[in-house]
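Session log. Operator J.P. requested a structure for one protein chain; no other inputs attached. Running the standard single-chain path with token output.
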Amino acid sequence: MYTKDLGHGFEIREMTSEEFWPLWDKYADGIFQENSMDFMWRQHISDEEKAQLKDLGKNMGSPLRIMLGVFKNGQFAGWSVGDQYSADVYYMRNSAILPEYRRNGLYTQLMTAKLELLTQKGFQRIYSRHVSTNNPILIAKLKAGFIITALELDDMFGTLVHLSYLTNPLRRKVMSFRSGEQKPDEQMKPLLNLD
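Structure written below.
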């Protein structure tokens, strides 16, 4: 199981489902519900639709799920949870630091630890989705090397920005070309049939 000492009594550690979900249940509403206009659509569908979704979920197999917790002197301070999306893509589903522990750089350290772990496991692309006005998270991820790869209009959350982190340096370089940020260099030209 993954662990990382952050100093000053803080640590990040990988958690089991049995450890993680009770803490999620205890803290998530307090983090995400204040001033929220999220449309929790699963609460407004019929029992038959819920049963159908449960049956459909059985087709999804068992993707890798990684849950990291941040702790200070053993007290829960935050989390990051996500799932394998495909053979090469990981979806960083949700991360948060509890309010009393914010402004200490913990989110950035948690994100960096998660990127290190996912890169070690071999994922090529790591992506996340964020409300388009969530500037603190968007800025932190852009500074860490994520790039904007899509916009989505979602009935649950509104306008979402998709951010992707490519673990392979050549893929990052090609994406920089694709975005119009740089011209293709001599390494890229033959790969893109531009020679």
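Operator note: The chain has two domains: 1-105, 124-195.
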